[in-house]
Amino acid sequence: MHTSDACSEEGIYTLVPYQQARCSKWGIQKHNSKHVLRRKQPPKESVKMSLLRNKNKEREVATADHRAIGRQLDLYSINEEVGSGLVLWHPKGTIIRKVIRDFWEEEHLKNGYQLVCTPHIAREELWRTSGHLDYYEQNMYLFEKEGEKYVVKPMNCPFHIQIYKARPRSYRDLPIRYAEWGTVYRYERSGTLQGLLRVRGFTQDDAHIFCAPQDVLPELVRLLDFNQHMLKKFGFKEYRTYLSTKDPQHSEKYMGTEEQWVNAQSILANALKERNVVYKEIPGEAAFYGPKIDINIVDASQREWQCTTIQFDFNLPRRFKIVYIGPDGNEHEVVMIHRVLLGAVERFFAILIEHCNGNLPVWLAPVQVTILPVSTNYLHYAETIRESLLAHQIRCEVDDSTSTISYKIRQAEILKIPYMLILGKQETKLNKISVRKHKVGNLGLLTIQETVSKIKNESC
Ligand SMILES: [Zn+2]
């Protein structure tokens, strides 16, 4: 039964400490409860100083939490009236999602994937064939209409399989790669929900690759390169890789033949070796339906998070009879690989904003530029600048309040807006702007063209 990993839980939870980062049941890995601040006893420190120090430390921890950053930057909210674990994306959070999704879709198209779009619900029968109803029902939302039972999708795989099966496939059509920014719903006990890290409705950057056995190795190598390229773009530089294999003592627990397992495990290992990836093999950690590679990212605080999973599946191809016509004219069972690169978008988003403490790079910042006229006398010039920036698709806004310029700058710094364009008498006269960068300071007087090129270069 396909329940864990590439198409299930991996996307949604904190998988923190290195030594605890593996846990068996359903691949769920619990939040690291051991991540606590260990305070050394300060030598002869006044009570007041000690309190202040601890308070600062708490503040630091609180601001690095994605829930605090999300509130401060007005990115998303979750409320009880809508329901626990269901995320409302505010305009600024939605823009960030859109930028990530546009980038993701363009890169997938460049890499030979085909985008697909599938429904949020499907008849119970589909989930009976896939096996989810037998093994995963406690996590599924079910309802009935006119005597027919439906399931709100907990995974995208059965839909992609149906698209594959919509017509006969020849070996010449393979590999087929279907990618979808697919939103799924899974029931989680309310006590386990946590900000964006563990939710009930989330979007996976999902894809399924259908290939013939001889395509698998080059496909995996290509996938490792692609994944590296994607994660690097978000500023993650350190990864830890795991190869989850079956428990050799308990072969009876696994689907598929011994030959299939030996082949799949050695192909996964060979792909990692071909790219000189250092990895740790973990026997007994494979799902019962196939071995997998997990690539965990290490964030700025040295915490480890599982994001990428590349998972073999010996179960669904058999259940759904997914085949292709080989050169011999006969039907052959297809090799199916599930993969997510970012995991669950909500969870990735939380990791990302904690990693950069809300200081998003220019290409992701919801507002890239704020235009700060020193007084309302310069609103007209500010508006001209805004129009020029919008024409270059730079996300910007004008602070037209009557606050002082130092207050406006402070506000922009709090909102972590990458660029501040300050304009007053001198700037208007010279037809230039004073450019200030978040966390850097003044960059001097620039023309609008120079400013645009600077921001565009940084947005790539
Ligand atoms: Zn899947």
Description:
The protein has 460 residues and is an alpha+beta fold. 33% of the residues lie in helices and 24% in strands. The protein is built from 14 helices and 20 strands. The chain has helices spanning 47-63, 66-72, 91-110, 124-130, 132-135, 157-164, 216-233, 258-274, 316-319, 345-355, 379-391, 405-414, 425-430, 448-459, and strands spanning 76-77, 88-89, 114-115, 121-123, 141-145, 148-152, 176-185, 201-211, 238-245, 279-283, 292-298, 304-313, 323-325, 331-333, 335-344, 369-373, 396-398, 419-423, 433-437, 441-446. Strands 3-7-8-15-12-11-9-10 form an 8-stranded mixed sheet. Strand 5 and strand 6 form a beta hairpin. The radius of gyration is 25 Å and the shape is elongated. The two termini are 42 Å apart. Mean pLDDT is 87; it is low at 1-49 and 55-63. It binds zinc ion (ZN).
The residue fraction in helices comes out at 25-40%
**Strand segment count:** 20
Strand ordering within the main sheet: 3-7-8-15-12-11-9-10
| Unreliable segments of 5+ consecutive residues | 1-49, 55-63
Bound molecules: zinc ion
* Rg on CA atoms, Å: 25 Å
Chain-averaged pLDDT: 87
Q: Count helical runs.
A: 14
How can the largest sheet be summarized?
A: 8 strands, mixed
What is this structure's SSE topology?
Layout: H1 47-63, H2 66-72, E1 76-77, E2 88-89, H3 91-110, E3 114-115, E4 121-123, H4 124-130, H5 132-135, E5 141-145, E6 148-152, H6 157-164, E7 176-185, E8 201-211, H7 216-233, E9 238-245, H8 258-274, E10 279-283, E11 292-298, E12 304-313, H9 316-319, E13 323-325, E14 331-333, E15 335-344, H10 345-355, E16 369-373, H11 379-391, E17 396-398, H12 405-414, E18 419-423, H13 425-430, E19 433-437, E20 441-446, H14 448-459
Parallel strand pairs: 3-7, 9-10, 16-17, 16-18
Antiparallel strand pairs: 1-2, 4-6, 5-6, 7-8, 8-15, 9-11, 11-12, 12-15, 13-14, 18-19, 19-20
Helix pairs in contact: 2-10, 7-8
